[in-house]
Design a protein that fits this description.
Blueprint lengths: L6 E6 L7 H14 L3 E5 L2 H7 L2 E4 L26 H14 L3 E6 L1 H12 L3 E6 L15 H22 L2 E6 L6 H10 L3 E3 L7 H14 L5 E6 L6 H12 L3 E5 L11 H19 L5 E6 L2 E6 H6 L6 H11 L3
Parallel strand pairs: 1-2, 1-4, 4-5, 5-10, 6-8, 6-9, 7-8
Antiparallel strand pairs: 2-3, 10-11
Helix pairs in contact: 1-9, 2-3, 5-6, 6-11, 7-8
The chain binds 6-O-phosphono-beta-D-fructofuranose.
The site of 6-O-phosphono-beta-D-fructofuranose has 9 residues, from loops.
Length: 327
């Protein structure tokens, strides 16, 4: 099959996520398979604006899948949101002879692709974020690793909370979504999980489940708070202390959740997605986001994907309610 594109620019943009390197590797190796050249654009859309690039070949992406972060660096480019910045980026595409771009990131990254598509480039987005908040995809690259990283820290916290009979309030990332908090909360056996998608009734959602657990004989408590919840983990801890007199400690896990070697799941999904992105371009497709529908790799029109909404996993929420007594 003769490929519809000749030279792909690949970039990572927005918050980095473990598994992005596996996606880059898959894009480069698949491109070679389809007879397409591949240029790595460094620092996301900044790189397109500033002509910051690196030629990628078979060897240059060898042994990167197991590494955290992104070898292409990432950035959130404000300049690209301005017309002048976009024009500079298009000039770089012309100079480098790029006829297509694959961007790995979140919704903001995909919006950026639309402006390149308007100028005639073929573009494909790949969902990469630890937040799992891309509506068109049931899974985003980095989520599993972030869940496991958070869990490892929470398991350690539990040891010391148990020894001191304390209440641990742990803030996890997730931007404005609670997917990470729900998964981590279920997996660590939290007493309470707070997410931005549900308004918090402190008495009913926080204090009651802790009291119930206490009556059942529990002497230490794990409360998971998504960073998007109104207020802060410190306020949640103060309210718990005030209502129960429990000794509380707050841990904000922060960027530690974005690092580390990607899990098998993240490497696999990233590799399938990277391969699919190039296959679509070779076939002449453009303006698509590669996504997961359960275990299946699918793709959507970018505009359609951006208009979609994603709810928290209903089954997960039900399990949480049944096991914690939360409403
Ligand atoms: O989108 C990924 C994410 O880690 C969010 O969970 C978090 O809100 C944000 O990025 C943090 O961004 P930054 O690295 O710019 O502080």
């Amino acid at each position: 099959m003769k490929s519809a594109v000749k030279r792909i620019g690949v970039l990572t943009s927005g918050g980095d996520a473990p598994g992005m390197n596996a996606a880059i590797r898959a894009v480069v190796r698949a491109a070679m398979h389809f007879g397409i050249e591949c240029i790595g654009i460094r620092r996301g859309y900044h790189g397109l604006i500033n002509g910051d690039f690196v030629k990628l070949d078979f060897e240059s992406v060898s042994d990167i899948s197991r590494r955290g972060g992104t070898v292409l660096y990432s950035a959130r480019s404000l300049e690209f949101k301005e017309e002048a910045g976009r024009n500079k980026a298009l000039a770089t595409c012309k100079l480098l002879g790029l006829d297509s771009v694959v961007a790995i990131g979140g919704d903001g990254t995909f919006k950026g692709l639309l402006s390149l598509a308007n100028a005639g480039l073929s573009v494909i987005g790949i969902p990469g974020t630890i937040d799992n908040d891309i509506a068109c995809s049931t899974y985003t690259i980095g989520y599993d690793t972030a869940c496991n990283t958070a869990l490892e820290s929470i398991d350690r916290l539990r040891d010391t909370m148990k020894s001191h009979e304390r209440c641990s309030v742990v803030e996890v990332m997730g931007h404005r979504a609670g997917h990470l908090a729900v998964s981590v909360g279920i997996a660590c056996g939290a007493t309470v999980v707070l997410v931005p998608e549900r308004k918090v009734d402190y008495e009913k959602d926080v204090i009651e489940p802790i009291r119930e657990a206490r009556l059942g004989g529990r002497t230490h408590f794990m409360v998971i708070v998504a960073e998007g919840v109104e207020g802060s983990a410190y306020q949640v801890a103060d309210k718990i202390k005030e209502a129960t007199s429990l000794d509380t400690r707050v841990t904000v896990l922060g960027h530690v959740q974005r690092g580390g070697s990607p899990t098998a799941r993240d490497r696999l999904v990233a590799t399938y997605m990277g391969h699919e992105a190039v296959r679509l371009l070779a076939e002449g497709k453009t303006c698509r986001v590669v996504a997961m529908d359960g275990d299946k790799v699918v793709d959507y029109d970018i505009n359609e994907a951006l208009a979609m909404k994603k709810d928290l996993d209903k089954e997960g929420l039900q399990v949480l309610r049944d096991l914690t007594g939360m409403e």
